[in-house]
Amino acid sequence: MDKLLVHGGSTLRGSINISGSKNASLPILAASLLTGEPCIIRRVPDVSDTNYMIQILSALGADVERSSGTVRITCEDVADEAPYELVRRMRASICVMGPLLARKGRCVVSLPGGCVIGDRPVDLHLRGLEALGAKVEFEGGNITLTAPDGLRGAEIDLRGTHGPTVLGTDNVMMAATLAEGITIIESAAAEPEVLDLANFLNAMGAKITGAGTRRIVIEGVKELHGVEHTVIPDRIEAGTFMAAAALAGEGVTLRRVCRDHLKAITAAIEQSGHRVEFNPTGDSCTIFRGETLQGVNLNTAPFPGYPTDMQAQMTALLATTPGISVIKDAIFPQRFMHCAELKRMGADIKVDNGTAIVRGVEKLSAAPVMASDLRASAALVLAALTAKGSTEISRLYHIDRGYEHIDEKLLMLGANVERVKDR
Ligand code: EPZ
User: Fold this and answer.
1) I need a surface site. Which of 124, 227, 238, 291 has the fewest CB within 10 A?
2) CB contact burial 120-142 (16+ within 10 A = b; e otherwise)
3) To test the ligand 1 pocket, which listed residue (120, 185, 310) has its Cβ within 8 A of the most ligand atoms?
4) Sheet of 106-110: strands edge to edge?
5) Among the four given CATH numbers 3.40.50.2020, 3.60.21.70, 3.40.718.10, 3.65.10.10, the one describing domain 2-19+233-421
6) Which residues contact residue 276 at a Cβ distance below 8 angstroms, ignoring those fewer than 6 apart?
7) Quick check: 370 and 395 in contact, CB under 8 A?
8) Residues 6 or more apart in contact with residue 267 via CB below 8 angstroms
9) Going along 129-230, which residue ranges are E strands?
10) Is residue 280 predicted with pLDDT exceeding 70?
């Protein structure tokens, strides 16, 4: 397993391009199952999660060509059973369920495993698909959905105890595009990635309105056609590098971002004392480390609130920000694995019942730390940038799931990092 050695103390300067969004690419790749015609999807990041999704689609029978960031995929004749072992390894593959059911009238998908950020239930996905007429059975770790008479539009409320479900909204929206009649999704997720998927589906000939709000209306159509689409920028990668620039930078510029997707992240970084300047078109921003810094109170929330996927990275920034910060993650109350590792580096953090209380310290110190999940790993890299000494981060595969060439991008900004290949 590769490791990343981060030698702390370098100042980050210069600029990098932010990649296409992993969390928009995954459901959009799955949506190509809804047509037998070729789909061309640009700016798909080269990360293991998108590679897994492509493997799953190929295993289902799709013809996939990939050249740098462009994926050309044709699902002319696909099977209805997703490969158990592949689906088990990536929770997000659950989003093949909706398109497969709509296209084939039946689908078999393994129940996704839980993960370190918490139990990952799919009850809301199934509530929505059942409302469209699917029959749900569980056997051998698989979910089998059947709709022999096709799907029919319905009014569905996807409200969950922890707020809206992003992939659940995606699954129901994709299935509803080929259902007979009108589907209304109340309490829908409004993340930019859901809107990007809806734009992709509408370009395929779907009739979706309201995506990006809590209420989405889908008028079913007979069939969908091929399409070309460019995926939106990855707002979480952008946020991660914004935090890195605030921690260790001197005027770092991030290109290919989308200001509207970064409002909550920008507000949190500025509230702690740093400055973020966007260009007039809002597709590039420069971050200036502040002089007078202070702790902030952060509550994760569904978009447009502060994203849970940026909670760990902000915790790393606040670990050396003077003052007290209180960080609450109501979406994934267990998403604090990074705190134990940050404490090994000298951070002063108390975690209790879905809340982390961070008291900023002067400096962290290097220590051998272990990545546990995608965003926690990114938090460890950030912390190591200004820590005294060299930090060794093991289990780098967690980072490679969702950050395209993170070591190369950090090197381009002047960080002193090296990937140590496992012999
Ligand atoms: C998406 O996961 C993202 N993944 C996650 O990003 C992100 O953390 C999450 O949304 C929340 O924003 C992708 O888009 C591929 P949810 P998703 O369904 O859709 C509960 C990353 O780091 N819930 O929106 O799987 C659930 O337990 C990843 O890139 C139910 O109760 O998350 C959670 O508490 C990690 N029942 C809350 O809803 C369900 O049926 C939000 O989960 C589904 C979810």
Assistant:
1) 291
2) ebbebbbbbbebbbbeeeeeeeb
3) 120
4) 106-110, 142-146, 135-139
5) 3.65.10.10
6) 242, 266, 269, 270, 285, 286, 287, 288
7) yes
8) none
9) 135-139, 142-146, 155-157, 182-186, 207-209, 216-219, 227-230
10) yes
Distance 166 CA to ligand 1 centre (A): 6
Positive or negative torsion for Cα 402, 405, 408, 409: negative
Chain segment 117-143, per-residue pLDDT in tens: 887 899 999 999 999 999 999 998 899
Query: In this predicted model, what pLDDT tens digit does every residue of 380-407 receive, in sequence order?
Result: 999 999 999 999 999 999 999 999 999 9
Sign of CA dihedral 259, 44, 98, 222: positive
115 is catalytic: yes
Tell me, using a 6 A CB cutoff, whether residue 122 lines ligand 1. Answer: yes
Rounded to whole angstroms, how far apart are CA atoms 402 and 297? 27
- CB of residue 375 inside a 6 A radius of ligand 1: yes
Give the domain ranges of the chain. Answer: 2-19+233-421, 22-230
Question: Tokens representing 237?
Answer: 């990668």
Name the CA dihedral angle for 53, 262, 191, 342, rounded to a multiple of 10 degrees.
60
Cβ neighbour number for residue 418 with a 10 Å cutoff:
12
> Is there an atom of ligand 1 within 6 Å of 304 CB?
no
Q: How far apart are CA 303 and CA 9, in angstroms?
A: 34
235: three-class secondary structure by DSSP: helix
For atom 4 of ligand 1, which residue has the closest CA? 23
CA of 120 to the centre of ligand 1 (A): 7
Q: What is the pLDDT of residues 180-212, one digit of tens each?
A: 999 999 999 999 999 999 999 999 999 999 999
Give me ligand 1 centre to Cα 230, in Å: 23
189 alpha carbon to ligand 1 midpoint, in Å? 10
Same CATH fold, 22-230 and 2-19+233-421?
Answer: yes
**And the tokens for 327?**
């960080």
Catalytic-labelled residue, pool 95, 115, 285, 339:
115
- The one-letter code for the residue type at 327 is I
